[in-house]
Amino acid sequence: MNGSLSNTETQRPHILIIYTGGTIGMIENAESGALEPFNFDHLIDNVPKIKRLDYDIDNFQFEVPLDSSAMTPDHWVQIVKVIEDNYDAYDGFVVLHGTDTMAYTASALSFMLENLRKPVVITGSQLPIGEVRTDGEENLITALQVAAEKDTDGSPMVQEVAILFEDYLWRGNRATKHSSDNFNAFKSSHYPRLAKVGLGIRYRKSVMWRSEGNEPLRTHYSFDNHVMYLDLFPGISEAVVRHQLAAPGLKGVVMKTFGSGNGPTSGWFLEALKEAVDRGLVIVNVSQCDNGIVNPTRYLSGNVLTKAGVISGHDLTSEAAITKLMFLFGQGLTPEQVKTEMEKPIAGEMD
Ligand code: ASP
Prior knowledge:
By secondary structure, the protein is an alpha/beta fold. It contains nine helices and 19 strands. Strand 11 (176-177) and strand 12 form a beta hairpin. The longest helix is centred in the N-terminal third of the chain and has 14 residues, at 73-86. Bound molecules: aspartic acid (ASP). Residues 21-23, 67-69, 98-100, 124, 126 line the site of aspartic acid.
């Protein structure tokens, strides 16, 4: 651990904050005016109220705090390693993270932490913690409260990877960043909120994730990044599609389609997809619509994609779809096995 904000052994909630970077801890560079990540001490000095929570709080910080645009699977591994090493010693974990790729990290962590039975609450902010109107202080305090919350039987209220931002607690692998300006930066179109933050924090127990059985935590650390997005638009050319599908080493594609999972019906397009699938590529259909569930049998333009061998991503967010592909290939599965597993939920990421 890098540090502790308390010094007594008590029955108080014991929470570990993992600080990876993000706007929440940034300060303005005096010369360029650009926001740059800064260290955890600066961040915590700006939240004196934290001491009024009756919690024992320790922290672990990334050696170099990151703008989350620089996150890679190696950083996901680092976060999960810290959680695994400290799993028994803490009631819950708060991960401080930039908002830009928070939904990717949340999805990846949810797949990596099998049999998770403790809260992993990811938060950050739109304004740095040092600014007067910051949302960071409230988000951090609320995330700590969520991580400490117990159900009536004494078990953790939240037993999954969740994103806490402003007024809502979301399932992490269902959330998407939808605003770079609003304090309510995240939303989840296909899964209800886990809690609403108002005067109190109102939890919805009926929609919370609970791992089956009583197996201990099992972590998975491998990802395969030979994947990409293919984002469709009217007029997309054959040369561009074929070139992208021929990328060296490519194994999986998340294809962002129109509406309920539709795409061009031109012969060259369907042939290019079919050829790629026949070569062993896994192509997953997700909708470009925020609130779009793939229903490939609704229109001919969706049905032909299925015939070309494209599989349905149902209601997966694109963040969950691409991290899931990386995760499944990382487990050494064959393309056929990946196809089968893509259509089954791992951690509540799809219906
Ligand atoms: N670029 C920042 C990041 O993702 C944005 C933020 O934290 O809100 O690290």
